[in-house]
Write the structure tokens for this entry.
Amino acid sequence: MSTKFVTTSQKQILATAMALTQSPGFMEDARAIAAYQSGFEGNPDYLKAVLVFEAFRPNHSAEFHFGMAFNRPVSLEIIQMGITVAFHPKLFNLDRVITKTPVENVRAICGLLKIGFQIQHRENGALADGGDVIVSSLSRDAVMAQVKRAEPEVVQTE
């Protein structure tokens, strides 16, 4: 099943993101992307996840939030797409993304680490309910270094 990403209806997507992430709200600069099963865009029964970028900073960084639809496991494909959007020069053109993940969400933290995020610190009492989060980040430079390591070596023969 392929995924279709939708950016129309920002208010609706942000409202869905608030429910999925249990966030009390997002900043005014928030931009959201909904991930649906292809062919069912806009149908809430086929929503896979919602990605939100907010708190855009002058140093080309922003916070990255993701919420998987109810009863759906964390999808590395969807998180990686969010990273592609973040770093793409014709989209957000960020140099760094920052996530804040509830400490209880071990599966999401492990997924972020697998993609290349680095844990920065634990932030106590950061959630509306007083819960703690793990703050992690990923830089464009780190992603590019991974890409260079993965490129096959080309040997020229005469």
